Amino acid sequence: DGQKFIESLKKYTFNLIILDLMLPGVNGLEICKYLRFEDKSKRIPIIMVTAKDGEADRVIGLELGADDYVVKPFSVRELMARVKAVLRRTDRTDEQTEQNTIEYKDLLIDSSTFKVKIRGEEIELTPTEFRLLTILVNKPGRVYDRDTLLDKLWGMEKIVIDRTIDVHIVKLRKKLGDYGSFIKSIRGIGYKFEG
User: How big is the chain by its Cα radius of gyration, in Å?
Assistant: First the structure.
């Protein structure tokens, strides 16, 4: 229901919206326009889902601000792949606007000099460990699955297995001392930074 969804925006925050065009009340195109106009929602990625497969329909949807357009019928696997792709693109855009210095309690990460300090004392990290720590600390509390971390660290450049992340996490925790416990394992998924 379009109207109920608009009301829910006041109560909840969303990482991504899958939006059907044929909704009762307010239709999907109107909702998309509304989302792109409001400050709170204009940066939330939107995937439009619809039975309308004409080129004109797709163009309208994308011009109104949808990040992707999926035509019914579709498989759950295809939709999940598109969700992951849109979230990766969104994360990269966010990273371009990130600041050079990140502070978390007594932890300081300076991307301009590639230095990490805890309580003023410099910690020696490899480039991969530095990038991994920066990703995690930049969004405390956010859970990153292994595939997302692999993609952010290496993209398509290297063929690596997801357990490679686990090895880097173990080394990073050891080097960070008591701050290493802030890197939390989320069983069966990946990691987050919180403490």
Answer: 20
* Interval 89-120: pLDDT, tens: 766 545 544 557 899 999 999 988 889 999 99
Q: Are 56 and 21 in contact (CB under 8 A)?
A: no
Do 23 and 11 form a contact (C-beta atoms < 8 A)? no
* 119 to 5, 21, 106, 154: CA distances (angstroms): 46, 52, 5, 30
Distance from C-alpha of 68 to C-alpha of 46, rounded to nearest angstrom: 7
Tell whether the torsion through CA atoms of 70, 75, 76 and 78 is positive or negative: negative
Residue for token pair 């909704």: 23
Residue labelled with tokens 């035509």: 71
pTM over the 0.85 mark = no
Within 8 A by CB and 6+ apart from 39, the residues are none
Task: Encode pLDDT of 143-184 as tens digits.
Answer: 998 888 888 877 654 555 667 888 889 999 999 999 999 999
